[in-house]
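Worked Example 4.2. Consider the chain below.
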Amino acid sequence: MSSMFANATAFNQDIGVWNFSNVLNISNILDNSGLTTKTYNTILNSFALSTTLPKGLNFGGSGLVYSPDGKISHDYLSSSIGKALIFDGDSFISSNIIQKNVPFDFTVNAGTSFSTGNYTFPANQIPGYPEQQIYSLSQVPGIIPYKNLIFKISGNILPVLLKNTNNLSITYYLTVVN
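Applying the procedure from the previous section yields the following structure tokens:
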């Protein structure tokens, strides 16, 4: 099942209730897929309750975003008490709802697919806020935190691009409520 829905940008289905009892590899199964934050939260919450999901699988998650509605499950799943899943490249957004002209925080879970170095987050297209934030990642795995982000937004999807000096780039798609 490795990379089964990777890069399937039209895929936005809940796989959290699937039976994974005989699965040995789900690495990068949903990387850069079209999952909305709401659907990813639902999958995380279902996985946390699952009796068929084996421990210690490499899940990946590059380009996926979860919010407070999925945080407890994500934290549990990645703990040794929980399923000890390995998340790499997914991110946490500080609000369940992104609203126009309202600042939010964004944290990327930088796993082993990341490298150390500077990560640039082009952000804050509103006067009075810095135009971009740079974070230096000194070890992997680690986290890349960005605080107080605010964007000029048109439409209901906000594509957010994270880039580093080694040409790694990941786009996260955030759903915006008017």
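The chain has a mean pLDDT of 86. Residues 37-177 form a domain with the Immunoglobulin-like fold (CATH 2.60.40.1930). Compare this with Example 4.1 before moving on.
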